[in-house]
Amino acid sequence: MRIIIAAAVCLAMASGCSGLYSGKPEKVKRPKTEKMPEEAPTGPAEIKWVTECKATFQEEPAGMIAKHKKNEASVRPQIEQGVALLENATTAESDDEKAGNVKQAINILRRVLDSAPYSPKATYQLAVAYARARRKECSKALLKRLAALEKYPDFQAEAKRMIDSAQEDSTLKLFEKEMLEALGK
């Protein structure tokens, strides 16, 4: 029995073991050469601004200061809500969520300015919101209005703070020359 097993093992080894380079080599096909793809431009993406603004931000002076003073305290929570929405838009993960937060902030801040039209903080935040929505002309109109608010003694200090904030805001720096021109700087 041992002899049969040893013979079978020797036979298997002899038939399965041939030299490493024995037999015909396989033919290798040359790969097709393809053109290199053109590289995409590596510069910053161009921002497409909306160059028109249908909204008007000029209030009529008759009775508006009284309306503002009457509603000023009641709109502060709404201003903070608009600011919070803009902050949430910067940290949102999806573009739809960012756009939704900016749109809500615009709606809230517009209502604030309807109730308290001389609010420098609401004016500045709405200018930022419009800039994030790529509505440069509306943002510039609000910045002009902010500069005009600096001329009123009651709103001068806060308007000055908001103008200083606007000059440092990264969103508004996307059109810095026009922003400074709108602020009268």
| SSE string, helices as H and strands as E | HHHHHHH
Radius of gyration: 35 Å
Which descriptor suits the 3D outline? elongated
Number of helices: 7
Biggest sheet details = none
Measured between the Cα atoms of the first and last residue, the distance is 107 Å
Unreliable spans:
none
Based on secondary structure, the structural category is mainly alpha
**Average pLDDT over all residues:** 81
Proportion in β-strands: under 5%
In helices, the fraction of residues equals 55-70%
- Tell how many strands the DSSP assignment holds: 0
Can you tag this structure with a few keywords?
single chain, mainly alpha, 7 helices
Gist of the model:
By secondary structure, this protein is mainly alpha-helical. The protein has seven helices and no strands.
Task: Spell out the blueprint of helices and strands.
Elements: H1 2-16, H2 64-91, H3 95-115, H4 120-132, H5 136-149, H6 156-168, H7 176-182
3D architecture notes:
It is a single chain. This protein is mainly alpha-helical. The protein is built from 7 helices and no strands. The mean pLDDT is 81.
